[in-house]
Amino acid sequence: MKKLRIVTTIMLCMGNLWAQGQSSSDSIKLAVPLDSVVNAKKMGLEVKPVRIDFHLSKGEFAYQSIFVTNNFSTTMQFKARFVDWMRDSLGGHEYSEPGTTPRSCAQWMSFGNDVVEIEPGKTKDILVRLKMPDNDSAVAEMRWCLVFLESVTENRVYKPSDSSRAHVNTLFRVGIHILQTPPQLESQKSLEMLSFKSVPGAKDQFQILCRNTGQTQLECKGYLELSSLETGEKITIEPKIFPLFPDQKRYIDFTLPEGLKKGKYTILAVADAGEDDIPLQASEATIDIK
């Protein structure tokens, strides 16, 4: 059983609560223009895998394949390229030229073939190679980059509407995560909850701030649990799933449910790194709903 570490206790007084709509997305694998909110497979493109993990020591190299299936009715061409990227503290992606960020591995990456032409219903692969330098600094920390797989020319597809079917030009771009974690770092995992507080100006919203203090990426889960001090009733707020790179800080926002009964509650904020040997991080507060 995991240990539960309570890092702080705070007291809050709240007025009547109200709810707002919210949305959260950490990773968008497909970016298309216009208002097409669809996944790649539904639109005719299937890419596997969307994440490639390498675990290489200094001087080693390895190959992995990205498989691309064209489910369109026409032949498609795709080109692959490497980019650097980081997540910001809200989970958004920031892109830059390959090999320009401190933890990039893009400068050690290459393609066996960076352009593929795929006939309808066919699958082809793009070979990805990582060659680690033969020095200690290359494996002193986890590194990563991204493969962008983009359509070489715009594809004309049909988009249904209420009255007719119209031609829409859609540019496809799929992101495949590349992670390189040296084997000696894989056991160095830890998570810290830096703060838990109410969001200023929003009576029903709370925010957790976490930091990955280990050496590998963590797949974390955060949630809130309310307990009525009068009835003992427990209410769990829907968990938020979020990845964290080493040394990354991340804010996670939560909204309390609508229609809570008046009275005092304890509210427990929990961050779970998803590993049995990493203690749960938690913070507790008391709130008064009037």
Give a short synopsis of this structure:
With 290 residues, this protein is an all-beta fold.
Architecture overview:
The chain folds into two domains: 4-24 and 186-289, Immunoglobulins (Immunoglobulin-like), CATH 2.60.40; 40-185, Immunoglobulin-like, CATH 2.60.40. The longest helix is centred in the first third of the chain and has 4 residues, at 40-43. The strands form five sheets. Strands 1, 16, 17, 18, 20 and 21 form a six-stranded mixed sheet that branches. Strands 3, 5, 6, 8, 10 and 13 form a six-stranded mixed sheet that branches. Helix content is 1%, strand content 51%. Strand 5 (76-87) and strand 6 (93-96) form a beta hairpin. It contains one helix and 21 strands. The model is unreliable at 3-42, 155-160 and 162-169 (pLDDT under 50). The chain has 290 residues and is mainly β.
Kindly list the characteristics that best describe this protein:
6-stranded mixed β-sheet, disordered N terminus, 2 domains, Immunoglobulin-like, globular, 290 residues, mainly beta, 1 helix
Question: What is the string of helix and strand elements?
Answer: EHEEEEEEEEEEEEEEEEEEEE
Rg (C-alpha, Å): 23 Å
Mean pLDDT: 82
Helix content estimate: under 10%
Based on secondary structure, the structural category is mainly beta
Broad shape: globular
Question: Oligomeric form of this entry?
Answer: single chain
**Major beta-sheet overview:** 6 strands, mixed
What would CATH call the class of the largest domain? Mainly Beta
CATH architecture of the largest domain: Sandwich
CATH superfamily of the largest domain: Immunoglobulins
Termini distance?
A: 37 Å
When the domains are counted, the total is 2
